[in-house]
């Protein structure tokens, strides 16, 4: 049984792989995967937009339909585990996850993930994964991105986008196949072991300001439990950002 189609549709350029799948969510089959070798309007959390040079970034999205909308919030965690496993398999780089969905290699961000639910004739979701592949350290320095890096910088290897995409799809598919029968707890266990946020003093940033507390646990829906001022609060990824007390991690 497979959830994701291993035959990845490739484009030389798209505005955004997530946008493409959202526009075509109910005409394409569930499990459809899209790879763009260049994006002109890639999107991250909180509406951030970036452009990339061909071959320097992996831009991959896949469509889930139907999907339980209640599980959409957990999808970034699943995608983080799948992407980390794929990176380690191909270039041997050790990795961690900064809650909720930033993949870290050498304590710097190498990957971002954006999962979006779609309302329509049936429930659907799009999962987008962007990995920095071939940028050099000077690229991030010139753009004042001290907490970002690439697999080339960290491992010395520049992966072929399609090769990494195929490995991510295979890893994600394995998790999606087992999740309905095993539940989310095994995935949560894997995520907790890889999550660099847990146990740390963190700053929780919202539109109203910031609070300081200790990250305690990951909940079943993927939200973060933080102890602030002696009280435990649930932080959801769409509502706040979390930073380390003395830096990004």
From TrEMBL:
It comes from Neobittarella massiliensis. Its EC number is 6.3.4.15. Residues 1-180 form the BPL/LPL catalytic domain. GO terms for cellular component: cytoplasm. It is an enzyme of class 6 (ligase). It comes from the Bacteria. GO terms for biological process: protein lipoylation. The keyword Ligase applies. Keywords: ATP-binding, Biotin, Ligase, Nucleotide-binding. The keyword ATP-binding applies. This is biotin--[biotin carboxyl-carrier protein] ligase. GO terms for molecular function: ATP binding; biotin--[biotin carboxyl-carrier protein] ligase activity; transferase activity.
